[in-house]
Amino acid sequence: MAEVGDRYRVSAGALVFRALFRPVFRGVFHLLSRVLLTGRENIPAQGPYLIAVNHVSLYEPPLVLAFWPVAPEAVGAADIWERPGQATLARLYGGIPVHRGEYDRRLLDSMLRVLESGRPLLIAPEGGRSHHPGMRRALPGVAYVVDRSRVPVVPVGVVGAADDFLVRALRGERPPLSLHVGPALRFEPVTARGEARREALQQNADLVMTRIAALLPPEYHGVYARQGSVISEAT
After folding, report:
1. Are the beta carbons of 87 and 81 closer than 8 angstroms?
2. pLDDT reported for residue 16
3. Residue 106 maps to which CATH number?
4. Residue 69 has what DSSP assignment?
5. Are strands 153-159 and 50-53 parallel, antiparallel or unpaired?
6. Is the predicted pLDDT of residue 83 greater than 80, yes or no?
7. pLDDT computed for residue 102 by the predictor
């Protein structure tokens, strides 16, 4: 990733890596597992948008990045850049590191520049892996970015990407992996201030997660079990 002033652009090296290796990773996933992709018609044909996905293990982000029709930008936990192998892949792909639990204005500005450039951006609203199917409560960051950028959110539910996925796959089990894409969502601007604004943003983040939960089996719903939502669909 390279940033020039207020403009965002992807480095030539990252573009080459994505062009060469996204098909390779698709092939690896097909070899190791039984991949099912539903809701492809819900992926916007163009324009900036957020891709919001549940996050159980290390495997949801590369699965989405490999099978999405275009190469999205991606936000990942900063500790990925400290792990051998993962760090190399993250740097080559051009991911954006985020420090969990910290307010990072530069990160938010980078995310907004990605969207202003017209590119999709992958984010996990939970802020990290849950290590079990049940979803945790979303952090408000996803709603803050949506409120600032005015872009739609595409909810994505991934089933089967457990921590032991690779171990089972290497045993020859070929465990199933399902990637379900829901209709894009759009929110009204949040006009409240102070604590009321924070509560409204959290509510919007929860609504995104509720829509993700609707794409998943009950054991994945976690804190979003039996919650309803009313959101207008993006046009």
Report:
1. yes
2. 96
3. 3.40.1130
4. S
5. parallel
6. no
7. 53
